[in-house]
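Quick one: NAD-binding oxidoreductase from Corallococcus terminator, structure tokens please.
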Amino acid sequence: MSQWHTATVGARAPAADGLTDLVLDLRGTALVGTHAHPGQYVRLRLPGQEPGMFAIASPPAPQGTHWEFLLKHDGALPSALLRLPVGTPVEVSRPEGPGFPMDKARGHDLLLFASGSGISAIRPVIASLHQERRAYGRVTLYFGARTPSSFAYARELERWQADDVRVVRTVSQPGVSGWEGLTGYVQAHLGEESLENAVAFVCGQAEMVQDVMAELRQRGVPQSAVFLNY
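--- reply ---
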């Protein structure tokens, strides 16, 4: 059973097509500083709604008083959360799941895979590794979205690229957008580089996760070097 704490809506802003960034204010709750590992998630609950699980999209901080979430515009709970005025109470559980093991990636090349709103669990990984970038080898983010306008954190992607994280974006449904970048699914764009020293963190829909894991296996990355956040 989850133990519930009452946070409040601190801010809300568009993140991409079909995605909104929601910030919860934890001040005055026992949740402050409880987010320990990138990739952890919490349960959110509103009166009359079933709880839902959401990855914390902001990095762990010892005295962190605000958590960010990337909400997809579908489902009863996300839709209700997106309509709440600033200051509205939201019930929140303590962080759950092991998150991504940053210590296992130290000294290795790091492959990050995310699709759609799955980038919310990978974003704090990138923030954490930037605190000691030299502890890791090459870092590559493979980020897939349905359309060119549905990549969350677009400005941050540019900053990550400038800060020595290779960003590979691919679109599964480019339509008539004029998109000239990569198309298809993330696992199709691993390239030919050696993955001998690689560790992988993966977050996305179940089918994407399975496909990525199968491709990594085929490329010689052992299952023991591939991590999910749950």
